[in-house]
Amino acid sequence: VASVTALDSDCATLWKTKLAESEHAVTVYRQRLRDSVSKPLAPKSKLDPNEPIWSCESKERVGDNRMSNAPRAPYTRHNAFGDGPKFMCGVTQLPRPCLVYNFGSNNDISFERALHNLTRCEIHTFDPTLRAAYRGREFSEFHAIGLGAVLRSSGRRGASFKTEQLLTIMKSLGHEGRRIDVLKIDCEGCEWDALRPAFEAMKAGSLSIGQLLIEVHAGKSEPQQVYDFFSSALDANLRLFSKERNHWGCDGYKCVEFSFVDKAQACRAFASTHCPREVNSGTALNELCGEGPAWRSPSLSPLTSAVSDVRP
After folding, report:
1. Cα distance between residue 31 and residue 8, in whole Å
2. Who contacts 287 (Cβ-Cβ below 8 Å, separation ≥6)?
3. Element of type H or E holding 268
4. Coil, strand, or helix at residue 222?
5. Using CA atoms, how far apart are residues 278 and 12, in angstroms rounded to an integer?
6. What backbone phi and psi angles, to 5 degrees, belong to 297?
7. Is pLDDT of 100 > 60?
8. CB–CB of 202/178 below 8 Å?
9. Cα-Cα-Cα-Cα dihedral of 222, 226, 228, 234, to 10°?
10. Cα torsion for 215, 219, 220, 226, to the nearest 10°?
């Protein structure tokens, strides 16, 4: 009975309309990305075309302020400011159990501590550059390895360290075939190459990532690199829902925090605020959100056509 209610409810109509409007935003965004390659932008504007194309109903900055970064400091929700916290979509609507990968720590454990308190997810933190012992073992399992496109040793700050592909790391930890509900990355420029295999795996359906929270370092990146990265994220069925310039460093424009969400997690966040309680779990939620990672549903064709006639 609950599943019928989900399909017939007002929230289902709202969800279909939201998806249809999103398709138009994606079409405009793809053209904007193409234009940024054919008409290269100034260095300060390199990441400007990449603005959110999805509105998350329960967007929240997750982390804590640096003054309470000690492992045993009391955690206070909605107190995330400074450099470190990340914007998430429906943090309390993450499925259970949930899996989190956090690449790049610098021993700032505010994100891991906050997510542990909010969700009790299984969290893994990766950073081969730490010179002191990792401080967040109470909240996360630590691994001294970095993210890369291939297995290699990389030099940084006079040291060398090991990097591996995401799928290889997942296999080594016994997570092969599991969904990564949250993938957080701050790897100082490795993202341009390191995420290519992951995006390809997502496009092929062999990898599922619910949210990607990433600091992108424009720096010396070429227009084609920027295009390839963001268009690949689209092809991997991720939708950009948050953008935040890092004004604590990088001259205020070279580093930008982006947050992406997949359809399944976006739908959970939507249902939590728009749907009756019985629609928020089990079969009813599955029927509302639809199967598979693709955002467009065959039933949306009329709506999509109507929305596509609207010019920005």
Report:
1. 35
2. 3, 6, 7
3. helix 263-274
4. coil
5. 13
6. -115, 145
7. yes
8. no
9. -170
10. 40
